[in-house]
Amino acid sequence: MGGFLFGYDSAVINGAVTGIQKHFDVGNSETAFVVAIALLGSAAGAVAAGQLADRFGRVRTMVLAATLFAISGIGSMFPPSIGVLGLWRVVGGIAIGIASVIAPTYIAEVAPTVYRGRLASLQQLAIVLGITVSQLVNWALNQGAGGESTDELGGIQAWQWMLGVEAVPALIYGAMALTIPESPRFLIAARREKQARRVLEEIEGPSVDLDARVSEIRAVLDTSHKPRLKDLLGGRFGLLPIVWIGIGASVFQQFVGINVIFYYSSFLWQSVGIDESNSLLISLSTSTINVIGTVVAIVLVDRIGRKPLALAGSAGMAFALGLAAWAFSFRQGTGDSATLDNAHAVVALVAAHLFVLCFAFSWGVVVWVLLGEMFPNRIRALALSVAASAQWIANWAITVTFPDLSDWNLSATYVIYAAFALLSIPFVAFCIKETKGRALEDMG
Question: What is the gyration radius of the CA atoms in the chain, in angstroms?
Fold first, then answer.
């Protein structure tokens, strides 16, 4: 549910962008601000999440995220101004940032080693399901209101419903978080060993050697201390090399431009002459492809490993983004008058779907699995929060610049994304170490 809300809140703005522009009578810069401001909140939430998780526990931190999701949804539904909408988007962004850290941390800490990759992949599956459901709900509300997001449904404009419906899964998330056990590693760190033993037996089965498992976890924890930011420092460039690698993976995941598809696809397709209703339908289809690719990754991540998937995905994304750049080079006009002939529009649609597929079966899953696994126990939650924060800042940079870049030169924008996809290949080859089959206590 944390991943679902992560995806839902991130992508729901896609269907509401046009309605927000028309309702508040704002241009691309103001729209980009409202879309992207949530990502700065996400960066702050990601930084805070590690310390919250280590102080209050994983479950309580999830409940906090659920509460913030619900508050943000209701507040975003009835904003008196574009600025107030931005503030509520920040609240939702903080919740996304917390969820982006707490879910992979919790999954990595409760999952048996042999299943950890597949179970961590469920986080990404939940994210893409959240994205898909948000696009389905957006399209349904748009149709129910007559095909325009500024039309009313029950006295409230469709775009407002799009943002407000999020409160329902948020409440479900909070309720479900209260039914799951706390992380045994957190419990042992908090000297609640008896409870930790019960959780370990529940999640690893009655045959587990509890004394050995508790001793193994305690030995790692006892040789460390509560992580602080200074524990991440070291090496020639300020931070420990493993932290830089986590940051690098996070930045590359965003600089290929994936969230342009999920935040702006309705805006993107309208910019080449497709009407609002059909653009939302295309957004739904790309989200469906995203789910399919994620399922493929879940099947393969523990079989062939993290690195091979990432390398294959990088090559596929570079090709698809290059193809999209070529197709968009034939766009005529700008703004509402922009058009793309049928042949090149088809190529652009195919390229966008291929790009999403390649991302979904590789970087979409692999980065979150790696971030949950690659750091040593003593700094895992904090290092993951720093890497996730870098991811949100990179996401913000891509999101806030896309509307103006697309007005400048849509084709060149996709060339830039393709270049980052190409650069990610040597990064994976030389910087990423395979974590498949390794116990968390062996990470160093």
Answer: 22
Distance CA 141, CA 317 (A): 32
Strand 152-153 and strand 156-157: the pairing is: antiparallel
Q: What is the pLDDT of residue 167?
A: 92
The C-alpha atoms of residue 433 and residue 242 are separated, in whole angstroms, by 10
pLDDT digits (tens, 9 = 90+) for 172-203: 999 999 998 988 888 888 888 888 888 888 87
Q: Mean per-residue pLDDT for 121-144?
A: 85
pLDDT in tens, 238-293: 888 888 999 999 999 999 999 888 777 766 666 656 666 677 777 788 888 988 99
Q: pTM score, two decimals?
A: 0.73
Q: Give the containing element (helix H, strand E) for 62.
A: helix 58-77
Question: What is the identity of the amino acid at 168?
Answer: V
Tens of pLDDT, residues 127-137: 888 888 988 89
Nearest residue to 114 via CA among 404, 332, 436, 376: 436
**Nearest CA among 175, 132, 179, 137 for reference residue 158:** 137
Say which DSSP state 58 is in.
H
Check if the beta carbon of residue 123 is closer than 8 Å to that of residue 303. Answer: no
Q: Check whether 437 has a pLDDT greater than 70.
A: no
H or E stretch covering 178:
none
Whether residue 172 is contained in a domain is answered as yes
Q: Which residues contact 71 (CB under 8 A, 6 or more apart)?
A: 88, 91
Q: What is the DSSP string of 185-209?
A: HHHHHTT-HHHHHHHHHHHH-TTS-
**Residue 197 domain flag:** no
CA distance 82 to 68: 20
The pair of three-digit structure tokens given for residue 243, joined into one six-digit string: 């932290």
Domain span holding position 323: 2-180+224-442
Chain centroid offset of residue 324 CA = 23
Instruction: Please tell me the distance from the alpha carbon of residue 411 to that of residue 324, in angstroms, as a whole number.
Output: 7
Domain assignment of residue 206, yes or no: no
**Nearest CA among 223, 213, 220 for reference residue 184:** 213
CA distances from 174 to 201, 264, 276 (A): 25, 29, 34
How many residues belong to the chain? Answer: 444
CATH number, residue 149? 1.20.1250.20
Alpha helix ranges (H) inside 301-379: 306-328, 342-360, 363-373
192 part of a folded domain: no
What percent of the chain has pLDDT above 70?
91
User: In total, how many domains does the chain have?
Assistant: 1
Report pLDDT for 281. Answer: 75
Instruction: Tell me which DSSP letter residue 332 carries.
Output: B
In terms of Cα–Cα distance, which of 91, 124, 92, 95 is closest to 107? 124
